[in-house]
Amino acid sequence: MNTPGASSPPLRSPEQAPEDPVLSTDVSESPVQEDATPPPPRGGARRGPDAAMGGLLGSLRSGARPATEQVLAFLTFLSLGIGVGLVLGWATGHDPGVILGNLFEGSIGSSISLGYMLTAAAPLLLVAVGAVICMRAGQFNIGQEGQVTLGAIGAGFVVFHVDASGPVTIVLAFAGAALAGAGWALLAALLKFGRGVDIVVSSLLLVFLAEQLLTALISGDGPLHDDGDGVLGGGTASQSPRVPEKAMLPTIHILGVDVPLAFVLALVAAVLVAWFLASAHAGYRLRILGQNPAVAGTIGISAPRLGSLAVAASGAFAGAAGAAILMGQSFQLNPGVSSSIGWSGLLIALAARTNAAVSVLLALVFGAMVAGGGLLGGDGIPVDIVNVITAAIVVALLCPPVLLAAVRRRRIRRSVEA
Amino acid sequence: MNLTTDLETILTASVPLMVPLLFAGLGEYVAQRAGTFNLSVEGMMLGSAFAAAYGASASGSPVVGLLCGMLAGLAVAFVHGNLSHRLQLNTYVVGLSLNVLVLGVTNYLLSTTMLDIPGSSAWRIPLLSDLPIIGKAFFVQPWVVYLLLPLLFVIWWVRRRRVGLELRAAGDDPVAGDLTGIDVNARRRQALLFCGLCSGVGGAYLSVFQSGSFTSGMTAGRGYIVIAAVIFGGWMLRGVIGACAVFGIAQGLQLALPAIGYGVSPQLLAATPYLLALVSLALLGARSKRPLALGQPFAPAR
Q1: Residue B49: enclosing H or E segment and its boundaries?
Q2: Between A and B, how many CB-CB pairs are < 8 A?
Q3: Confidence (pTM)
């Protein structure tokens, strides 16, 4: 993965030479690069950013270990993360038992709370599934928060400006949201493959542009601004009208629980993506690109094309999450409509070490925190403790492979010394 | 309304907004030159803003507040440095989770504490503060602001010393640095600690010296503006200073323009830092002075 010379120009198969003038502009062939002095042929500089990113992502992937050991490590570190949050609660004079009890009660305590939990988990899972795709392709897109915002904008344009029946509106809104999210993500991909800009940086900066774009659209003369025919605060506040009832996402009654449509969609997406990455030919090529860009180049995988596609796909999923938020949770566009769901979804995918199945589990845990957090206020416990718990979970879940590697190193050193 | 008073209004509104950006920006500049893309600068600023507010209100002294703020910044940097440059956890994930963690912790603690922050008076520099246009903006400020001068001098001086070169080696070519005997990860942790210290001053300035209160999530994305400033500044010291000044003015204009009587989209002004950073990246492309190993983990092979 970190072989020197990984960034040498990839061999190209003839069929993929000039297709898309923008996307196929290889960084190493752009005229800008030719004027510039070549990078010094030493050490770290020799490795291309892709190879290094592969290494960076490799550090997230778990090594080959027995399944039971992995499950045990996962559960241990999950509890460790929750424990950190409970210790904070205990230190400030709240009973950890009460906190845990509320979190369980509010998430899986009744069929109604189950519905809340699934509603909260749906957009998180959609974002995480998208993030899994681009991370597996070695594209470190961290701009999901902005892509969610764009998705909400796209869905908003359909919901508030297209006159159609309920189901048609919902389908069109999801399509518009996915398009908007994918387009926003593609901007970052274009900057990367066209201009050699680090995708971490460009996707991050685009998050804050998306925020301002949304605010501009829903305030003053913006096309999504609530002019006063909405329910509340029409006229001056920066917000859109309420989503009409026909465009609110329905629920499906399964085993006594009202399962929100968005969660069903997200679950289907997770299963499809897991299958795609594990078994489909294109998924296999995507993984090669992520794990070893040099090999990908030699066997004729175009990094700009496949990489951009992966980034666009992740943006589309994040956009769909934006639609799910607008039509299933917030029912209105306001400046903070994405409410950090993009960040959380990204962290879920990374804490799950880019595994779609684990992402489902973690999205449910995070959803449980959101739903259960709602009950904490009743006992006088600030709801923000769930943010502490989720962040601690993420950091804790990153630890197992690192600690394992450290143990392995020590074992090797001992056997050498012995 | 004439030009002089308008300029004075704009500058007086902008300078206090530049100050936290400058403190954190100088720290972030050092961290990024050492090769660590520090996303947790937002968390550092927010955590230190709260700690400073808490320290100042508990002790009744702004100085204690400032020290608490610096400690909090150091604490976040310590956690980040050890997780990502000792345990080699992914630095972006660590940074983002730390931001969430700090936001959660400060909100949680805010709802369980009452803050009563003592006021601190501004220093009026004799003679200079009587200058037209710039006098009031630059020379009537809380004393913390003038810490920028020694800080700038330290960074400028260290750049040419061995430590500075080693830091840059850790950012540009960790492999070669490692071969010449530099402990790359230690240098990166130290750079992060320095960034934590500077962001701590910036955060303390925000809560104790500028607004005299702490509100939930009060940094409001300033950490990300700082990152944009380092990028727009082209990873050069004078560039970063200039970028912080420009972004501070962009924020100040949001306050000052309505007062003067101009209507400019506040969203456009708020988006300026990110737009400028993106455009400069797109124009410069691969020619930028970005540290070559920025954001890449380094594990010495032995």
Answers
A1: helix B41-59
A2: 179
A3: 0.84
